[in-house]
Specification:
With 433 residues, this protein is mainly α. Helices cover 45% and strands 7% of the residues. It has 14 helices and eleven strands. It has a three-stranded antiparallel beta sheet. A two-stranded antiparallel ribbon has the order 1-2. It has a two-stranded antiparallel ribbon with strand order 3-4. β8 and β9 form a beta hairpin. The longest helix is centred in the middle third of the chain and has 21 residues. The radius of gyration is 23 Å and the shape is globular.
């Protein structure tokens, strides 16, 4: 950039045949010259005292403490690489305030790096932090419930909470509530819940305000793949809202607020039949009966899939059983030739959409959570090179080659790692260690 200061560091060395050499370049980062020089000097002093191996060893110890095991070495490598990547690249500290902030990815290899989405951070990356680093998960929630609180539910924001892209998304409005409830359930950290009682109330009322009186459903401007839809009622976001209301009932009960708990219970109780009435329909070609629509205007259903907020997730959210005939028909239809983006005949095909016309990493993770789809998902996981083992937005359903635009996808890396562990880890959770 114009005016930028550049430095060139070179080490020349002649090597005899069979010999080797190492070169270490120490870089210090800070808000000014003094702090950056001091940072570099401290690292250099550590190397002088214990050698470069000690610095590498200390880092390895930190990393190993944030890993899990499935008992399958090849799967462990993939899972833990993505666990660590979401920890280090979906979260980072600002230079000027030392605030932990969340982003989709710190890497410029991903096409929307360094912006904040409630959904990405709270539903995809946070579960991985809870699995491996509960202290970081707590700090991530502190950030979501303070810095990002004013605009929770708005499509995307800068790291200081200011709106980047406008448009309300129901799934994003529910995400911090579902994330907080998951954290408290896993860790028993009721102090964090009590500390942010006011924020929980704000988020609850923001969610409730989206209710449509005519249908009993909750409206969204954009769907879970960040696209505006004319039809405001979307199935996965409404099911996620239903889950959030159930979580609100539990959290308000834990807080001793019986009136708020009763309201959350009532709203959840009214929402489920509204979903089944307005977002389940006949008419999907070849379905053989009613299935879940992806969205509706209250009258006309749309049959499709949205991988970042999939119909395939409904059992994982507790809305229905995987063996429920309604879900079975929906699953079958999404994997059939009647769904344009099913890729049913491709060796590495899982349902996609017009927005992401390939096998997505979300779909791989969702299938890991379903007994019916788990083996196929594991085969796809192992077949793709991904981005050096780091999860990408998706892969070619015919070749398993990763897409180029969505490389280094840090929040999705956490989502896939968590799904691998949820379906196959043999050790205790980090939250219970």
């Amino acid at each position: 950039e114009p005016g930028a200061v550049a430095r060139r560091a070179v080490r020349d060395q002649m090597l005899e045949p069979g010999a080797s050499a190492e070169a270490f370049f120490v870089i210090g980062i800070g808000v000014d010259r003094l702090s950056s020089q001091s940072a570099a000097s401290t690292i250099e002093q550590r190397i002088r005292r214990g050698g470069s191996d000690s610095v590498v060893s200390d880092t390895a110890v930190w990393a190993r403490a944030r890993t899990r095991t499935t008992g399958q070495p090849d799967l462990d490598v993939l899972m833990n690489r993505n666990y660590l990547f979401t920890r280090l690249f979906a979260w980072g500290r600002t230079f000027d305030t030392d605030q932990l902030v969340g982003v989709t990815s710190r890497s410029p290899r991903y096409y929307v790096s360094a912006a904040y989405w409630d959904r990405d951070s709270m539903l995809w990356s946070l579960p991985a932090l809870i699995d491996t680093d509960p202290r970081a998960a707590r700090e991530a929630l502190e950030y979501a419930l303070t810095v990002q609180l004013n605009n929770t539910g708005t499509h995307s924001r800068f790291i200081d909470g200011v709106v980047l892209e406008s448009g309300f998304q129901l799934d994003e409005a529910a995400a911090p509530l579902v994330g907080l409830a998951r954290y408290v359930r896993r860790t028993g950290d009721f102090e964090l819940l009590r500390k942010h009682r006011e924020a929980v109330g704000v988020l609850a009322q923001r969610l409730y305000a989206r209710r449509d009186a005519a249908t009993g459903l909750y409206a969204s401007h954009k769907d879970s793949q960040d696209e505006f839809q004319r039809e405001p009622f979307m199935t996965y976001p409404n099911v996620l809202a239903w889950r959030a209301m159930g979580d609100l009932r539990t959290m308000f009960t834990q807080l001793g607020d019986t009136a708020a708990a009763a309201e959350a219970k009532s709203r959840a109780g009214a929402l489920k039949p509204a979903i089944l009435k307005h977002l389940v329909a006949d008419g999907a070609p070849g379905a053989g009966g009613p299935i879940f629509a992806v969205r509706s205007d209250g009258q006309t259903p749309v049959f499709a899939e949205v991988p970042p907020g999939a119909l395939l997730l409904l059992p994982a959210l507790g809305f229905c059983s995987e063996n429920d005939p309604l879900f079975v028909r929906t699953y079958d239809w999404l994997h059939s030739a009647n769904h344009k983006y099913a890729y049913a005949d491709e060796p590495y095909g899982l349902p996609g959409s017009y927005r992401v016309p390939f096998t997505t990493s979300w779909s791989v993770a969702d299938h890991l959570l379903l007994s019916r789809g788990r083996e196929r998902a594991l085969r796809i996981l192992r077949a793709s090179p991904w981005d050096g083992g780091i999860v990408t937005e998706g892969i070619d359903p015919h070749t398993a080659k990763p897409d180029i635009a969505g490389r280094a996808f840090a929040t999705a890396a956490g989502y896939v790692a968590h799904a691998i562990c949820e379906s196959g880890c043999t050790d205790e959770t980090a939250a219970k260690r």
